[in-house]
Design a protein that fits this description.
The complex is a heterotrimer of chains A (345), B (167) and C (744).
Chain A (H helix, E strand, L loop, with lengths): L4 E4 L3 H8 L4 E4 L5 H6 L7 E4 L8 E3 L4 E4 L4 H5 L2 H6 L1 H8 L4 H6 L2 H6 L50 H7 L3 E6 L2 E6 H4 L18 E7 L9 E6 L10 E10 L2 E10 L6 E2 L1 H7 L6 H11 L10 H20 L20
Parallel strand pairs in A: 1-3, 2-3
Antiparallel strand pairs in A: 4-5, 5-8, 6-7, 6-8, 9-10, 10-11, 11-12
Helix pairs in contact in A: 5-8, 10-11, 11-12
Chain B lengths: L2 E7 L2 E7 L6 H8 L18 E4 L2 E4 L12 E3 L12 H8 L9 H14 L6 H7 L10 H15 L4 H6 L1
Parallel strand pairs in B: 1-5
Antiparallel strand pairs in B: 1-2, 3-4, 3-5
Chain C lengths: L25 H6 L14 E7 L5 E5 L2 H6 L3 E5 L29 E2 L5 E7 L2 H10 L3 E4 L10 E3 L12 E3 L2 H7 L2 E9 L11 E7 L2 E5 L5 H12 L6 E4 L15 H13 L3 E4 L15 E9 L5 E12 L21 E10 L13 H19 L3 H7 L17 H12 L11 E3 L2 E13 L5 E8 L4 E4 L9 H13 L6 E4 L16 H25 L14 E4 L2 E4 L5 E3 H8 L3 E8 L10 E12 L6 E11 L6 H20 L31 E5 L23 H13 L5 E2 L8
Parallel strand pairs in C: 1-13, 9-29, 11-12, 15-16, 20-21, 27-28
Antiparallel strand pairs in C: 1-5, 2-4, 2-6, 3-5, 7-16, 8-16, 9-14, 10-11, 10-13, 14-15, 17-18, 18-26, 19-20, 19-25, 22-23, 23-24, 26-27
Classes of the chains: A alpha+beta (345), B alpha+beta (167), C alpha+beta (744).
């Protein structure tokens, strides 16, 4: 990796001030940034270490939770209130990466993580995301894992996070602080969709920092929420496609529904139309199939990946199935896995 | 520009003059301190061979910038045994042949120590397999690894969630 | 090193061969004290980092050496302009196990990933960044990197000089008279060994002696190779390889960056260490080439095979020749009276493939076992019954008898343990909850080669012994299993055996590969021990003061550190015999090799049964049970053999479901040369794997009756999983790895 200056920020204000000049990058857990630096996909001149900022708490808010940006992924996943009220978030987190990485990776880092598109990771390939204006190296290449929703010829990469998919489904809000003050952005629209010129305008302006994730009251969906993830080995793999689903069912009828897809777009793909369609329906596979079809209405292959459309449709149905069946008291041994066990009956 | 890294490794405090901020904890351990038991298999958090305990939690030393871990307490494979007495996890790995070439073994063992301390897998083999899946063993000694972790969990006497619920 | 390994760090569960001793190197490995090549830190060591080519074909037009040299800490940048010359051409083949050495002797790029420069610096961080700063410009030429577009290249020989084509019997007539046939095409993907230890070397010159630490599966052969390319005498080289962090074939063949590091150490007069990054092992260190295999099985009305025809198309590099000999898997497994095997090469701009755990056999078996299941279905027979019907009682290829073959017992044992009986013939008949469940099987087979090995065994005055041979431990357990054999050869307790191994100043132990290392090195050790005991017996039986006097050499037996008369119960301890003769030690020598032309066909066999669960909606597959029974001659250490077999079977899971290295055809570069993109099995992928060994005495394979267990576990397994996937889903896999989307 290139030489850089290293400084630790002791306060949010200091971090923002330090980031106000070009060439700086925030370092938190390091699990993504150091990796990118090692492969030459990121070359910051200055690292501003924010890992010790006082953003390491999970607080109760009125019916919801507020998660500091420096809370480690593992600590969210094992937090009793998360498990009780947002089990699909815990399940998504536990299905991602490895235990070691979850112990190091932070909430903010997870939100900010870069795509795993192999062309983005290869500095010799063109990539609008890494080098605006250079083109999309993936287009016409090995695209089996690339986007089928919301893509543009400027970029066909997908966002790799599992956590963000669950957060999007739960209507989470990203709290941002910067030189101009603080603002909120919904998780579901935090990550920009690409355009012809490239990866779109990043959610964060120069000097801005993610400080918290706010989760609203899940209401009646707390125990009908699941995350399901298709991958090419049983554990420790990025999603081919994934889905977070949550339902509130009263008197055998869906009164509220949430559905977000992962592995399909440059952002966690929240399916509002499908959700609206489900309200008032009986929670059956038939209903879910109709809703899932709606969720993938606009999907088109960005290359050799038409199969992902069908897989995404199917995983949406399955995740809704699982949510309807209810969240198990204890998350399965293989979180978010097709082979999780207890739901096979 | 030289920075000072204060770090406790296997109980011993070190004050290291780091002339290069780029050094990862893994490379500091291996190349500057000679603690070569911690292995480099991918250098990108994709294999687990470099697993150490940082402040009691298992992490990949390859993705830990050394300077960011100033004042941390690190335990490596070299710090596990007490004199000639092996740690129960080490003993269990030998008894169950939980390794072949041995290269991933320090990482597997540190990961297992971390897993047992987390107390969430208990005696459920499937949870152990999932919990150990961040440590790749290309020789594929997984059956022995899982059995070793289960035995060491039993030996640790930690009351686990499984024991509580299964009792 | 030798001293360190004297620790008796294992748990005694019995004694010597046949006992499941824990590993003698166990304590070293669980404490992090076992030294691997990259752990070496000689005083003043410099760090080397190579730069990998970013194009697949062309030349390097420009390197920004100035930028690299200006980076703080950089000592020297090696490019074709300033790299010292090799003693011989990089293309010199001093023996058949030499691939072209890329040592910056010219500016050509022959494949992406080829080293095109090397930076040496005071720190690893500096060398790494300076290599990046070299920012090469290329003159690229059109390249080809896949089986589909590569250039046809037919040759008389495949891997290791085996004939590329073989025909036995009259295929046309057999086909004309057969009542039914099936044709099957199976593609297998490019695979990379991905040993957990990336290739590494630490080199230092001590005077005019070269000391190198580098993981190596063929220490004696490699010393010769280094010596030839460096133009120095073999005696000037000390190669240390006590522990190999996984090899699987990738550390049997030398590669250019090793020589480059040695040249730099000589040039700079300081020790130099090079450890390849994970992405850098993709290209220069060998791989398993992709194959496209077509099989036609002809049968009679009863389902007996009348002809077997197996063709393989595979890829090799543009400059060397190693063809994956997949079709040969059909030579000796099933009773085909008419047999044809063919291979067709294609050249591409990729690194030269090489031996990778069960080279040839693994992809060949995968395709053959899929074809066998299709044939069984065409014949209306259960897959196991079909294989039993076509059991080869003699080797179809050579016509010879098998030296031993307990395959029927393997079928019975594994099928029984698995619960195969009652398996529905039709697919999609079984479920576990909502998941589809399928059962499949495959036959495992692997040949039993022997190489050349030598060993010394020295009995010491205190009754202990030191045995020496340059064996290589890459996890198979050489430090333990070979010591067990040596103890038996000497007739002493294993705790009295000091085993010196893993470096080139010792007698050559031959190649750790081909599943022949334990047999070859073990035979040498056993013979060396026997030689020492023979000398001891001569001393005693000719000495009137000995209770053994007059018994004759053949009249005594060595056991428990004593020689015992066969004609009464008198005995004498080794130390007493030596003391009376006034000797400090007696040294025996032995060799291990197969003598004369083989009179039998020699193979290990096995049967593997797989159960898979498949998500009917998503196509994701998990191998829920994998049970194999193997007949591999004499098992020296059942615990270590089990680990080897389980490891091989889990390799089968990887090959069947996960492993696939991909190039971007436009750039010629890999898109997944890391462990996040190239998936190998993790712990959760192997919930239940069981390996059973079936007793087998083989009087022909070698004096010790050892057949080897390192590779056979991969064979049979891939096909068994593929067949189980068919049974679960009704979809017959046409390629490995099987992708989820092909199953929905």
């Amino acid at each position: 990796m290139n030489r850089f200056d290293y400084a630790r920020a002791d306060s949010i204000g200091a971090a923002i001030a330090a980031a106000g000049t070009p060439g700086g990058s925030f370092l938190a857990g390091g699990t993504n940034l150091l990796d990118l630096m090692k492969i030459g996909a990121a070359t910051p001149e200055r690292l501003i270490d924010i890992s010790r900022l006082p953003l390491d708490r999970i607080e109760d808010t009125d019916g919801g939770l507020r998660i500091g940006a420096m809370v480690r992924n593992a600590d969210i996943a094992r937090h009793p209130e998360v498990l009780a009220r947002y089990p699909a978030l815990a399940e998504a987190l536990l299905s991602g990466a490895s235990a070691q990485l979850r112990n190091a990776a932070t909430t903010g880092g997870n939100v900010m993580q870069a795509t795993r598109c192999s062309y983005f990771q290869d500095p010799l390939s063109p990539c609008n995301r890494r080098e605006p204006g250079s083109g999309c190296g993936a287009l016409g290449g090995r695209t089996r894992n690339h986007a089928v929703l919301g893509w543009d010829e400027g970029c066909i990469a997908v966002h790799p996070s599992d956590m963000c998919v669950a957060l999007a489904a739960y209507d989470a809000v990203v709290e941002i602080t910067g030189p101009e003050g603080s603002r909120d952005v919904p998780m579901a629209t935090f990550h920009p969709l690409p355009d012809a010129a490239g990866a779109g305008t990043p959610a964060l302006a120069e000097g801005e920092i993610v400080t918290h994730i706010r989760l609203p009251d899940p209401g009646g969906m707390a125990r009908n929420a699941r995350y399901l993830k298709l991958r090419e080995r049983t554990s420790f793999a990025f999603a081919l496609v994934s889905a977070a689903a949550a339902l509130e069912i009263r008197d055998g009828v869906i009164v509220s529904a949430r559905l977000a897809l992962g592995g399909v777009a440059a952002r966690p793909w929240r399916c509002h139309e499908a959700e609206a369609m489900l309200v008032g329906m009986v929670p059956t596979r038939g209903s879910f199939t109709v809703a899932a079809a709606e969720a993938l209405t606009g999907a088109t292959p960005s290359g050799d990946n038409a199969h992902k459309i069908e897989l995404a449709r199917r995983i949406a149905v399955r995740a809704l199935d699982l949510a309807a069946a209810g969240t198990p008291d204890r998350l399965p041994a293989l979180p978010a896995s097709a082979f999780a066990g207890e739901d096979n009956g | 520009m030289t920075s000072t890294l204060n770090i406790t490794i296997n109980g011993a405090p070190h004050e290291i003059a780091l002339d290069d901020p780029r050094a990862t904890l893994l490379d500091v351990l291996r190349e500057r301190l000679g603690l070569t038991g911690t292995k480099k298999g991918c250098d990108r958090g994709q294999c687990g061979a470099c697993t150490v305990l940082i402040d009691g939690r298992r992490m990949n030393a390859c993705l830990a910038l050394a300077l960011s871990h100033d004042w941390a307490e690190v335990t490596t494979i070299e710090g596990l045994a007490e004199g000639d007495t092996l740690h129960p996890v080490q003993q269990a790995f030998i008894a169950h042949d939980g390794f072949q070439c041995g290269y991933c073994t320090p990482g597997q063992i540190m990961s297992a120590v971390g897993l047992i301390a987390e107390g969430e897998a208990g005696l459920d083999p499937e949870r152990v397999r999932e919990g150990m899946s961040g440590n790749i063993c290309r020789c594929a000694a997984y059956a022995g690894i899982t059995d070793a972790v289960l035995e060491a969990t039993r030996a640790s006497g930690t009351r686990t969630e499984d024991e509580r619920t299964d009792a | 090193m030798d001293d360190m390994l004297n620790t008796q760090g294992h748990v005694r569960l019995g004694s010597s061969a046949g006992q499941p001793l824990t590993r003698r190197d166990g304590i070293l490995k669980v404490t992090g004290a076992a030294p691997y090549a990259a752990d070496a830190r000689p005083e003043g060591v410099l760090h080397a980092v190579t730069l990998a080519a970013g194009i697949a074909r062309g030349r390097v037009a420009r390197l920004n050496s100035a930028a690299a040299e200006a980076h703080p800490g950089v000592v020297k940048v090696y490019t074709p302009a300033n790299t010292p010359a090799l003693a011989v051409s990089p293309d010199e083949k001093i023996h058949p196990f030499v691939w072209r050495m890329e040592v910056l002797q010219d500016d050509r790029v022959r494949y992406a990933g080829q080293p095109i420069a090397m930076v040496v610096a005071e720190t690893l961080e500096a060398a790494t960044e300076a290599a990046r700063l070299l920012a090469p410009d290329y003159e690229a030429e059109p390249h080809r990197v896949t089986l589909d577009d590569a250039e046809p290249f037919d040759t008389e020989t495949t891997a290791f000089g085996r004939p590329a084509n073989m025909t036995k019997g009259d295929l046309a007539t057999a086909r004309a008279t057969s009542s039914r046939h099936v044709t099957t095409q199976v593609d297998t993907s490019a695979q990379y060994h991905n040993a957990m230890e990336p290739h590494a070397i630490t080199a230092q010159w001590v005077g005019d002696r070269l000391e190198i630490d580098t993981p190596n599966q063929a220490i004696g052969l490699s010393k010769q190779t280094f010596s030839a390319f460096l133009g120095i005498a073999p005696e000037q080289i000390l190669l240390r390889s006590p522990f190999i962090g996984g090899g699987f074939g990738s550390k049997a063949i030398l590669y250019g960056a090793q020589l480059l590091t040695i040249l730099a150490a000589r040039d700079l007069e300081r020790p130099v260490k090079l450890a390849l990054r994970r992405d850098q092992v993709y290209g220069p260190t060998g791989h398993r080439a992709p194959t496209r295999q077509t099989l036609r099985i002809d049968m009679d009305d009863m389902g007996r095979i009348t002809a077997l025809d197996h063709d393989t198309i595979t890829l090799t590099s543009s400059f060397d020749q190693f063809l994956e000999s997949a079709s040969n898997a059909s030579h000796s497994l099933y009773a085909a009276p008419v047999l044809r095997t063919t291979h067709h090469g294609r050249r591409a701009d990729v690194g030269t493939p090489g031996p990778m755990r069960a080279p040839g056999e693994a992809p060949g078996s995968a395709a053959l076992e899929i074809a066998m299941d299709e044939a069984a279905r065409a014949a209306g027979l259960d897959p196991l019954d079909f294989r039993l019907l076509n059991h080869a009682d003699t080797d179809p290829a050579s016509g010879m008898s098998f030296s031993s073959k307990a395959l029927r017992e393997c079928y019975a044992e594994a099928a029984g343990r698995f619960g195969w009986a009652g398996r529905p013939q039709e697919p999609r008949q079984m479920r576990e909850g909502r998941l589809l469940k399928g059962w499949g099987m495959g036959t495992a087979q692997f040949p039993c080669p022997m190489f050349q090995a030598a060993a010394h065994a020295t009995l010491r005055a205190d009754g202990s012994a030191v045995v020496e041979t340059s064996a290589a431990d890459m996890g198979q357990g050489a430090w333990t299993a070979l010591a067990q054999i040596a103890a038996d050869g000497l007739g002493i307790d294993i705790d009295k055996v000091e085993f010196r191994s893993g470096h080139s100043d010792l007698p050559d132990a031959g190649v750790a590969g081909g599943s022949g290392h334990t047999a070859t090195a073990g035979t040498a050790l056993f013979n060396a021990g026997s030689d020492a005991v023979r000398q001891l017996a001569d001393l005693a039986t000719q000495d009137p003061a000995s209770p053994l006097f007059g018994a004759g050499n053949a009249g005594v037996t060595a056991r428990s550190g004593r020689l015992w008369r066969n004609d009464d119960d008198r005995s004498e301890a080794y130390e007493d015999i030596l003391a009376r003769a006034g000797l400090e030690l007696i040294r025996g020598e032995g060799t291990g090799a197969r003598e004369g032309e083989p009179t039998h066909a020699m193979f290990s066999h096995g049967a593997v049964f797989a159960e898979v669960l498949v998500d009917p909606d998503l196509g994701q597959v998990r191998v829920s049970r994998l049970i194999g029974a193997f007949a591999a001659g004499r098992i020296i250490n059942p615990a270590l053999a089990r680990s080897q077999l389980l490891g091989g079977m889990i390799w089968g899971i990887g090959m069947a479901l996960q492993e696939e290295a991909l190039h971007d055809t436009r750039s010629g570069r890999f898109v997944n040369n890391d462990l996040a993109g190239y998936h190998v099995p993790v712990n959760a992928d192997a919930p239940m794997v069981e390996a059973i060994t079936v007793h087998e005495d083989d009087p022909f394979v070698n004096a010790l009756g050892i057949k080897g267990v390192g590779e056979i576990g991969v064979t049979g397994t891939v096909g068994a999983i593929g067949n189980a996937v068919w049974h679960a889903t009704g979809v017959r896999p046409g390629r490995f790895p099987i992708h989820p989307e092909t199953l929905i």
